TrEMBL record, chain A:
It comes from Rhodanobacter thiooxydans. It holds the Pfam family FtsX. One of its GO terms (molecular function) is transmembrane transporter activity. The keyword Membrane applies. Belongs to the ABC-4 integral membrane protein family. It is a multi-pass membrane protein. This is ABC transporter permease. Keywords: Cell membrane, Membrane, Transmembrane, Transmembrane helix. It is found in: Cell membrane.
Automatic annotation (TrEMBL), chain B:
Residues 20-263 form the MacB-like periplasmic core domain. It is found in: Cell membrane. Signal peptide: none annotated. This is ABC transporter ATP-binding protein. GO terms for cellular component: plasma membrane. It comes from Rhodanobacter thiooxydans. GO terms for molecular function: ATP binding; transmembrane transporter activity.
Length: 411, 435
């Protein structure tokens, strides 16, 4: 296909061609970044939590009047819940993965260290990993005789007399172990929560996501501490059951808890799947909006290309007729318009790539988005080439159908 | 002449219905999307207390130790209980209020109503006057009530409606968390948005229904909600009722009526820090901030990133739609070179042609703008159906209505100027000859 005639025609329509190129470039740049952001959100929404999500339900209560003994109340509640038909296991916890509101601690490897190494999510509870279904990959779980009531620990810390307490131990996630001691065996190592309190690692979990897992890089830094919190508005019961029994067990558990102590209000009762859905609701909405924008952009651009091509075909009817009369085949005419569109699209795409990179740099600066991987550029290019060819096909076929006799007629 | 040009424009637009519809739709979609997102952005970054926000300040002092548990150059975003009460009792500002958030169980007298939890604000006497909270009945408590740990409560209109059917409930008693309180005031509808005085409880669509003196809350051990950050051996309420002395969990606001007073107050904060350092409570060199309300909201980046991203996307989309329309309009005008040349040859001036074409593109732009306004209303309705906490706020106000109108007008002029100018450059003789 000879390019020269196409180029010389385009040179006579500089402004129109320029506008089309600009439109394609802008669309390409936005589509590249939008597709990347959708991928980013989907990846975030795909986060693993390391727990048996479909088998868990959560119940949270708040007392109407102050509870005299929060620890005894919690022990009794746990015993009551274990009697509910369908309940396989139950634990009191301060948070669940992806819950949103969270409890966190700054960790140090050396008590004399000035800046903490990192912040990790702290889970407090007895039998917590077992109930949630978090898999142990090394060491052991926390033992019942290592669990201490929270007020005992706080009093001991405040007075500086920690003699009566069992040795402080913890179970941490593989991700946290790999970050703190890369390539080493974490078992037996000590983590410092304050300058005085060190806890020894006795077990490693395959995974247990944070309650505030907003950032993918730190989402799996968690540790479980052997503290028993007692009832309180931030504590909740996590119950393990068969997936098909969740609704029934939830209802029965709430009824049993209200019967055990009517002086309280249920503030949360939900399956873990509902909790997870809520955590990612905004990401899902944003991904939907981005898909909508991409579709709208591509439709507008396609219609723009088709509209402009129709004008050009109508404008050049005489020229086409002359070419046909001079021996050009229908296929030649068709190819001419297809090549013209391909040429414009290619220039637009090249410009769009540069623009896409610029937009990405801006987003990286302002929205903590990672660098746009090179793999996304071809996606934008292919999509726009296809859209361009599809849009120009109709007008090009109409052009090819122009009979040679047009050349002999005056307007 | 205008009427004639309008007639010509409509005639020309009718000749090519599909194309006209495409141009109008593209502009409408672009403006609709931009105005929806811009309105949400405008609402979320608005001033929660217009007229008052300029004199309200949020003092910060730095009580952290050297352990590095809470790092960063900025002082903590809240105060410790001790610093809060010290600054409150110093009374160096025109008005000042110390506060924190929570939730309390309401135990209605009537057996027909089950006990329920409502959001609570624990604060001090100046809160209502300083923030201009409107009273429907009664009034707030005074500083003496604060010190006396009075069992006084101010309730919101929603709770008053729920418990007392909206009647004047001042003087009646209310049982909360097993204690009896006396209702001293009922607020009118009041829900500043963003919830500037405590952003930890959620920034938008949040209104407490119960206001209790802070010292009463501490006395009764009512539960505290919100963010708690600790250093040293502080535990954020683990195993204790309230956070340790080395935890920040209270917000402190002051009203300073003149810039000179604000400067003096900042000076005072530095003196206070030095004095606390001399006493051994503070270890860092004085590190204070005194931001006014809007500066505080900007510093806390209260507008969600996603909302700003959506606005950017929408404007990108609008740009593509405009370029698209300009291209189509240009092609259309150039296609009519013949007709325009004949008019030129018959004596129409370039100006007249320009006016005629501009009117044609203006019709497209304005129709698109109107469509965009309708689409924006639809878009905002969709936003209101979404589960986000700011959903209920998404309404078009007069400012945004005017902005929409200006945007539509600007967009249509932009979309018309270039094509009209280009089409007027045609040399009539050449055009007529070539055909």
């Amino acid at each position: 296909m000879e390019l020269r005639p196409i180029l010389s025609t385009l040179r006579r329509h500089k402004i129109t061609a320029g506008l089309l190129i600009l439109e394609i470039a802008l669309t390409c740049a936005i589509v590249c970044n939008a597709v990347f952001m959708i991928g980013h959100r989907l990846q975030h929404m795909d986060m693993t939590t390391g727990i048996d999500e479909h088998a868990l339900v959560q119940v949270q209560l708040a007392a109407i009047a102050p509870t005299p003994d929060i620890y005894a109340r919690a022990r009794e509640d746990l015993a009551v819940l274990r009697q509910v038909p369908g309940v396989q296991a139950v634990a009191l916890t301060n948070q669940l993965p992806l819950q949103g509101d969270s409890s966190n601690a700054s960790l140090k490897l050396d008590p004399a260290q000035r800046e903490p190494t990192l912040s990790a999510s702290t889970y407090f509870g007895e039998d917590l990993p077992q109930t949630m279904g978090a898999r142990l990959v090394a060491g052991r779980n926390l033992q019942p005789d290592e669990i201490v009531n929270a007020d005992v620990v706080v009093k001991a810390l405040a007075s500086g007399n920690t003699k009566g307490l069992p040795v402080a131990v913890t179970v941490i996630t593989q991700a946290l172990a790999d970050r703190l001691w890369p390539g080493q065996n974490p078992l037996g190592k000590t983590i410092y929560l304050t300058t005085q309190v060190g806890v020894r690692v006795v077990g490693v979990l395959a995974d247990l996501a944070r309650a505030n897992a907003y950032n993918d890089a730190t989402a799996h830094y968690s540790l479980v501490l052997p503290l028993f919190m007692g009832v309180g508005k931030n504590q909740s019961y996590v119950i393990r059951t068969r997936p098909q029994d969740r609704e029934a067990v939830l209802k029965a558990a709430v009824a049993a808890l209200k019967k055990a102590d009517p002086q309280r209000v249920v503030t949360r009762q939900r399956t873990y799947d509902e909790l997870r859905g809520k955590f990612f609701a905004n990401d899902r909405a944003m991904a939907g909006i981005l898909v909508g924008v991409i579709v709208a952009l591509l439709i507008v651009t396609a219609l723009g290309i088709a509209g402009l091509a129709s004008f050009w075909v109508a404008q050049r009817r005489r020229t086409i007729g002359v070419r046909r009369a001079l021996g050009a085949t229908r296929r030649n005419i068709l190819n001419y318009f297809q090549t013209e569109n391909f040429l414009l699209a290619t220039i637009g795409i090249a410009l769009g790539m540069v623009l896409a990179y610029g937009i990405n740099l801006f987003l990286m600066l302002h929205y903590e988005l990672p660098r746009l991987p090179a793999a996304y550029f071809p996606i934008g290019a292919v999509v726009l080439w296809l859209i361009g060819q599809a849009a120009v096909l109709g007008p090009a076929l109409r052009a090819a159908a122009v009979p040679p006799v047009v050349a002999t007629r005056s307007v | 002449m205008f009427g004639y040009y309008l007639d010509l424009a409509l005639h020309s637009l009718k000749r090519n219905k599909a194309l006209t519809a495409l141009m109008v739709l593209a502009i409408a979609l672009g403006i609709g999307a931009s105005m929806t997102t811009l309105t949400v952005l405008h609402v979320l970054s608005g001033d929660p207390l217009p007229g008052r926000s300029g004199t309200l300040y949020y003092p910060q002092v730095d009580a952290r130790d050297d352990s590095g548990i809470m790092s960063g150059k900025e002082p903590p975003p809240q105060l410790t209980e001790i610093d809060g009460f010290n600054l409150l009792h110093a009374k160096r500002a025109d008005r000042q209020a110390l506060m924190t958030g929570g939730a309390v169980p309401i135990q209605p007298d009537s057996a027909a109503l089950d006990p329920f939890y409502v959001e609570a604000r624990y604060t001090t006497a100046d809160f209502f006057a300083m923030f201009g909270a409107p009273f429907r009945y009664g009034r707030g408590w005074n500083a003496a009530d604060d010190e006396a740990k009075a069992r006084d409560v101010v309730i919101g209109s929603e709770l008053n409606e729920r418990l007392f059917g909206g009647a004047n409930s001042v003087g009646r008693t209310l049982r909360m968390a097993d204690s009896l309180f006396r209702i001293v005031g009922v607020l009118g509808d009041w829900a500043p948005s963003p919830h500037f005085y405590d952003l930890n409880t959620g920034s938008y669509g949040y209104a407490e229904q119960v206001f209790i003196p802070l010292q009463t809350m501490l006395d009764l051990h009512l539960e505290h909600n919100g963010s708690t950050d600790c250093w040293g051996n502080g535990t954020g309420g683990v195993g204790t009722i309230y956070p340790a002395p080395s935890c920040v969990w209270m917000q402190f606001w002051v009203q300073l009526d003149t810039p000179a007073k604000a400067a003096d107050y900042k000076e005072f904060l530095v003196h206070y820090s030095e004095q606390q350092k001399a006493l051994g409570r503070f270890v860092k060199v004085p590190n204070v901030r005194l931001r006014n309300l809007m500066q505080w909201l900007a510093y806390q980046q209260v507008v969600p990133d996603d909302v700003r991203l959506q606005a950017g996307l929408a404007f990108g989309f609008l740009l593509v739609c405009l370029v698209n329309t300009v291209g189509l309009m240009l092609a259309k005008f150039l296609r009519r070179a013949n007709e325009l040349s004949v008019r030129r040859a018959l004596g129409a001036s370039r100006r007249a042609l320009f006016a005629q074409l501009l009117i044609e593109s203006g019709v497209v732009g304005l129709t698109g703008g109107m469509g965009g306004l309708l689409l924006a209303l639809l878009g905002l309705w969709v936003v209101r159906q979404r589960p986000s906490d700011y959903a209920a706020l998404a309404h078009l106000d007069p400012v945004m209505l005017l902005t929409t109108f200006l945007l539509a007008l600007g967009a249509s002029l932009l979309a018309g100027l270039l094509p009209a100018w280009r089409a007027c450059q045609i040399t009539p003789a050449l055009q007529l000859k070539s055909n």
